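Let's practice the habit of predicting before peeking. Look at the sequence and jot down your guess about where helices and strands might fall. Then scroll down.
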Amino acid sequence: MQLAEQLREARSKKDILLMTHLVLGYPSFAANREVIHQMVENGVDVIELQIPFSEPMADGPMIIKANQEAIASGTTVADCLAFAAEMAAQHKIPFLFMTYYNILFKYGVREFLHKAKEIGIRGFIIPDLPPEEGEEYLRLAKEFDLAAIQIFAPTSTEERMRTLAGHGDGFIYCVARRGVTGSKTEFDASFDDYLARCRKATDLPLAVGFGISSREDVQILTGKADLAVIGTATIRLVEEKGAAAVGPFIAGLR
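Done guessing? Here is the structure:
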């Protein structure tokens, strides 16, 4: 089943879906394993696995630190692929890779996407690869039936949104505000207008991320978006309270 179709089916049974994010190898793969178990057990619908990169330009201080520490502890792309294969085999929800283009380029784009398909990954979020520069990636994503997820921002024009949507698959990731991940997002009339523009530009499901960290935030998005993306909040929680704290946190979001 195509990712977009699977998400629409899941969405028909829930008011809003939850997508979570973690940095592979931070604080350890053992902790990642427990966090994913907690997330799945408590109703997460999609999980975004970030392959650590030295210059994660879309990420805020918390996720930058997680990337740096994962790399410093020796996390490799091969480790991430092996771990993702294990998780995709164990859990039935869709897993995505989020990373930066140099990881794919260095590995070999065809080889990397083929491997991702082989281990059960369903799609990619590559924040630093606009479609104009990603012809090979987009062609291969179609070939391997992987969702090349595109990103809308509040600064995107309606024309740009339509262009991105034309290259997109799976869902559209709607960045809730300008800047990087981790800071609080204000949900006001301009945000509602932005989401209305996003909805007009595509019939793909809409995921909203950047600064989503509480039940209140998720409730605000319910009826406006299809997926709420929780990223920095869970990474911070693991650092402060340990992996076991993730389950109750996720359970309390909906």
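How did you do? The first helix runs from residue 3 to 11.
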